[in-house]
Specification:
Layout (H helix, E strand, L loop, with lengths): L4 E8 H13 L5 E3 L1 H8 L8 E7 L3 H20 L1
Antiparallel strand pairs: 1-3, 2-3
Helix pairs in contact: 1-3
Length: 81
C-alpha cells in the first residue's frame, strides 16, 4: 500500500512535542522532519534553527488536523493572558 504524507504543522520543538503526544494518544504516528538538525549533521546551518515539521498519513489527516488546531488555540489563549 502506497501512502502519501501531508505536512500539518511547522513550529518549535515544544509545540511540536505537544502535538505529537496528542496524536500518538489516538494512535496516529506522525513523522517529524527537522531541517536544522539535518543541515547541522551535513555541515550546513539552517536559516531558522529549531523549527520542525509534522507529517501524517493522508488517511489520518482528518483526525489529526483538529488536534493541531486544539493545541495551537490553547497555546494562543494561554499567551494572551
Amino acid at each position: 500500500m502506497d501512502s502519501t504524507y501531508k505536512k500539518i504543522y511547522t513550529g518549535n520543538f515544544i509545540v511540536v512535542q505537544l502535538i505529537v503526544d496528542k496524536l500518538e494518544a489516538i494512535d496516529i504516528n506522525p513523522i517529524l522532519k527537522d531541517e536544522s538538525e539535518s543541515g547541522r549533521l551535513a555541515g550546513f546551518m539552517a536559516s531558522i534553527p529549531g523549527l520542525q515539521d509534522i507529517y501524517v498519513s493522508e488517511d489520518e489527516l482528518e483526525a489529526a488536523l483538529p488536534i493541531v488546531e486544539s493545541v495551537v488555540s490553547e497555546l494562543e489563549a494561554n499567551n494572551a493572558n
